[in-house]
Amino acid sequence: MEKVANSSHRRRLVLWVVIELSLFLCVFSAGIQPRKLQVDNDSGTHVRLQINDGLVVINNGLVEVTIQNPSGYLMGIKYKEMSNVLEWRNHNNNKGYWDIVWDEDAYDKLETEHVEVITQTADLVELSFTKNWNSTIHGKTIPLNIQKRFIVRRGVPGLYMYSIFERKEDFPDANMYQIRIAFKLKEDKFRFMAVSDKIQRIMPRSEDRNEHRSQTLAFKEAVLLTNPSNPSLRGEVDDKYQYSAENKDNKLHGWISDDDAVGFWIITPSDEFRTGGPHKQDLTSHVGPTALSMFVSTHYTGTEINTLYKQGERWKKVFGPVLIYLNSAPSNNDHRTILWNDAKRQLSEEIESWPYNFTRSEDFPHSEQRGQVNGQLLVRDRYMVKELLQAKSAFVGLAAPGAAGSWQTEGKGYQFWTQTDNIGHFSIKNVRPGEYNLYAWVHGFIGNYKLSLNITIQPAGHKIELGTLIYDPPRNGPTLWEIGVPDRTAAEFFIPEPYEQFMNSITKDDTDKFRQYGLWERYSDFYPEGDLVYTVGTSNYSRDWFFAHVPRKAGNNTYRPTTWQIKYNLQEVNEKRTYTLQLALAAASFAEVQVEFNNPNARRPYFTTKRIGYDNVVARHGIHGLYRLYSINVPGYRFRRGENTIYLTQTRSLNSFDAVMYDYIRLEGPNSLVN
Rounded mean pLDDT of the chain? Predict the structure, then answer.
């Protein structure tokens, strides 16, 4: 009996060795180990495809892409002399992958079960890795049908990636809070990160964030580098949210390997598949080195963005394509600039080529199947001038039907945005077939515009001419005074210098100072006892209005609510007429603003926003989140001839991040226009 057991044990041991050796050989065949591979670097080389039981390899002579079969995990990208630009030490599911955060922080890396060749020619290979949801394992995987697509083209040093996700009517309810593609790059190579022309820097290594080399600050994402591997970074703060960007600007970011003068870039030529509109902010790249293509998230909006998919609701959406682009330059002192400028050139080419005509999914319509909407937007504000005003550089867009401004929290459909020219003309091009509302907002004016009719784009490539549209922004009377600029951000207000011990060299020439860590704490330095008092006609909002209405430190890690005062004079008061306070907020995080007029000791506030906001903008180094507008009507008897005071109390103070950011405040007198 013992001999039989030993024999069985030996067979299991041999089988284990065979399996381990097979996995080892698969990894090596993926181009992940340093090896010499004869590759024709001529950009005219045909695209070649190899598929076996464990791997799929696509080679166009410029890049060799290795994907695990059938999981769809991106295992390797060979470029130039780099056998793999991805971190070879990571598990195969932790190099290049899609993932979704769904119900109650469940996490799914969307491992697939089948691979299908969609197109295979000398010029292009397109593959689809698929998995259909199985109701028998309900609760274990996200209720979603999955297609992950890869395209390699002749002459392009990189690969295109997109996904097609679908829910059938009988799928159970699910929240999908975050959808993205993540890339973990080779850590001993990629040290320099570039997010924009001005946000570029040498980055810490992932090991620099551990407890032996750093100190965790007020939240886990932010650490103070105390003993980094690169001594020049000692004393800096690292936090992934410091590198966030708005959708409209988040078109190119990536990393550079200085040793090889090689760049790895994520190029996003269109925002149509992103959620929350052009001003929705999201992550880009961060320590890892990690590069992200973010499609859906609750960052800077909180759960107010719609991520709930209910049973009975059919849904299908294409995310992407995005281009993973690699480039190289001569190894000299200027290679970073060369690589960045070349990546911007490639971005321009991709934008010009959008929508791509080489994809082979019927769910991604080409240009001849899309429509266009043209028009002109004018503004009518008779308290400024009698003539119509041209809506210069206004944002105009198409999104799912809803209330005015609902595009901010629209998290499921497609959105198409543009900006008007100097006289308000706009052209929204390459719109997918579907039903939309047209929305807009105009710099310098409060509120949201919505055209009061639905727009249907037919799959025939036709144009819709809307003619002249007129926006009447919220207005009940003449301006008595105003604070700020109606631009949906708090950028024009006072942003203090950061603490010296919490600096980050990310900003140049005081650009985007709000990205620095710890600025919220500086309010208590400027107002250690009393709160902010702003005097209309004397104070300057860029100097005297703090950028965020935060609690004040009270000692022992406690905070207390703060009340800001606006003092102003009225030469006349009509007690029988109605005044209006226009209160526009740029952000709100677990906050409540109570408003009182000339009576700070009232038992109940005249107005309250109630508890609002989940955007967490203060902690995430943003300058705006979701835009909110409150038009507060006030009877004239609440005012006095002479000096008046408005009290703004932010009542929540559980922590230092319970806060609002103001966009713009205006007091309007009674209506004086004769109809």
Answer: 92
